[in-house]
Amino acid sequence: MSELIKVGMADYKTGKNPSSLISYGLGSCVGIAMYDAVSKIGGLAHIMLPDSTQARSAENPAKFADTALPLMLDEMLRMGASKSRITAKIAGGAQMFTFANATDIMRVGERNSEAVKNILKKIDVRMIAEDTGGNYGRTVELKLESGIYRIKTIDKGEKEL
Amino acid sequence: MKLSAMQLDALREVGNVGAGNSATALSQIINRKIDMTVPQVAIMPLGDVPDVVGGPDAMVAGVYLRVFGPAPSSILFLLPRESAFYLVDMLMGRESGYTKSLSTMDESALMEIGNILAGAYLNSLSHFTKLTLLPSIPALAMDMAGAILSVILIQLGQMGDHALVIETEFTTETEGVKGHFFLIPDPGSLDTIMAAIGVKG
């Protein structure tokens, strides 16, 4: 059954063709889509922070890039996806507000994107496309029928990765 | 994170006076009567906060300020896009419905409004607590509510999965201006505020 599966902030979901996975209103957060084009199994993670080891509390592993991505990958493999075929596309990591003296926390979008790329390397998943940075929000949707990752914005149009 | 009934009451009262001050300031600037709701004080999961303003993909203007001092916090004034347009039309003395996108001048005007609201709010909070609380210069973004709120939620996310939100809704009597004012104390700041007003858990 074709279904639109919503992924909230600090969450991840997996699914199969013909469903789609969608996450609304990403700012500095990063949306990571993983997809196996043969089994048409995919996952979408909406992470908020780069690193669970630097945070004081780590109750929710889906909040951090370093803990969310391995968990989502495992779930996809259990559903029948093949590790060697899984590729990733990422979007988000914007800086929503500009202050004259941008502190470290203001650059969290950039740090999130960097961290996601490092984790993908570490778990050996190839990143094939990205749409990161800027100062605007994004809504992202992964179509599990085709693997198309659609990025919607308010003023910067729509694109497909 | 848990609050006693007495702490919730105290926060609601502080929020009420603060928001009352802000509403009066806004009312004087635009020369319209402003109604406000009794502040909602809630501890909610981070992911639920965008639902307060109509969901993570609702189109809003957000003025964001950091609060410095012994109780660091974030202040966010969110308006639906149409309300932001109405508001700048009023401020600039233009016919209602004129603005379709914000000029640099309109953006400054909105930031100034955020500044004044935050100042009025913090004045009364400082008065209650005898803590010196100072706002940063404001920053503005016009985008999806989830994207704008994520800036604050990410800071909180390093400490936990929940946010303490003190939220008030402003509405004008006739025109469709509607706004949400959020005070989101950093983790730890709540204890400082509570101790300052002498309410124990």
UniProtKB/TrEMBL annotation, chain A:
Keyword Hydrolase: yes
Top-level division of the source organism's lineage: Bacteria
EC numbers, comma separated: 3.5.1.44
A GO biological process held by the record: chemotaxis
Record-linked Gene3D superfamilies: 3.30.1330.200
One Gene Ontology MF term: protein-glutamine glutaminase activity
Reactions catalysed according to its record: L-glutaminyl-[protein] + H2O = L-glutamyl-[protein] + NH4(+)
Enzyme class: hydrolase
A Pfam cross-reference name: CheD
Keywords of this entry: Chemotaxis, Hydrolase
Record function comment: Probably deamidates glutamine residues to glutamate on methyl-accepting chemotaxis receptors (MCPs), playing an important role in chemotaxis.
Family classification: Belongs to the CheD family.
Protein name, per record: Probable chemoreceptor glutamine deamidase CheD
TrEMBL record, chain B:
Coiled coil, from the record: none
The protein, known as: Chemotaxis protein CheC
GO BP field: chemotaxis
CDD domains tied to this protein: CheC_ClassI
GO molecular function annotations of the record: hydrolase activity
Record Gene3D superfamilies: CheC-like
Domain CheC-like protein span(s) in chain numbering: 6-41, 105-139
Alphabetized UniProt keyword annotations: Chemotaxis, Hydrolase
PANTHER family: PROTEIN PHOSPHATASE CHEZ
InterPro entries associated with the record: CheC, CheC-like_sf, CheZ_family_phosphatases
